[in-house]
Amino acid sequence: MVEAVADDVDMIQHLDDMAMTGRVAAIRARTETRELAPEDCDDCGEDIPIERRRAAPWTRRCVRCQMLAERAFGGRA
Fold this sequence. Notes:
Blueprint (H helix, E strand, L loop, with lengths): L1 H31 L17 H6 L7 H11 L4
């Protein structure tokens, strides 16, 4: 029974990884076709709000994309 639970968890993790890979590929495809300005999010291409850029001038992502990246990469993004 424990083995079946582990298999389910592994499958869910695998599907989640596949979905994240697809999302990352879609974002890259959208943003690689245009040149980004320094105030544009590297992931989605939308403007990074001025308040965020003032608070964290080194940032390359909007808040939403940063949260998604941290979730995807376990805080290593």
